[in-house]
Amino acid sequence: MKDPHDNQVTAPPGGVASANAPESEVPGPGRSSKHRPDRIGHLLFWPVAVGGLALDLWSKNAVFAFLKTRPDYSYSVIDGLLRLVLAENEGAAFGMAAGKQPVLIAVAVVAMFVILGLFLFGGTNQRLTQLAMGLFAAGITGNLYDRVFNDGCVRDFIDVYYRSWHWYTFNVADALLCTAVGLLLVSSFMPQRPLQTRDPQRK
Question: What is the rounded distance in angstroms from the CA atom of residue 158 to the CA atom of residue 167?
Fold first, then answer.
């Protein structure tokens, strides 16, 4: 006859859970981190965020240095459509809130913390969303760098135009932000993968 005590594991003074404890009470490797990004999520977010920031700052420095050597401070890339120009923006997108640097810096800092919080603790496992967050982080920090270290002005240099019509001059950081918005729109129509947690090991 089987002893009913055979399935019990005596807990040592360290407090190890017994074999008969409910699964919800047994700590598992994935339980404390099930709402945090996995390795692939980190490999998407951080390289995109750091690489995008580096590309934005490099492009601003390189293009501005190049255009300062041009007689008219501009360079035509595609005649009648695209050119590089020297421009500095004291406001946000489309020239909004011009001259309100403390407000713009504060908004950018808050937005950066929001993005980091959503990525680290938001529980999203959609790859496009994680990629979009990396692009958001790169774009926000790229323009924030200019506001802090370039007398409050963001360096813009991409001029898209047709005849006398010109779109608002922008930079790589702005392009990253717009791409991030597009990716979020696409990801909103895609199903969310269920969060996976590993079962605790049984002996």
Answer: 9
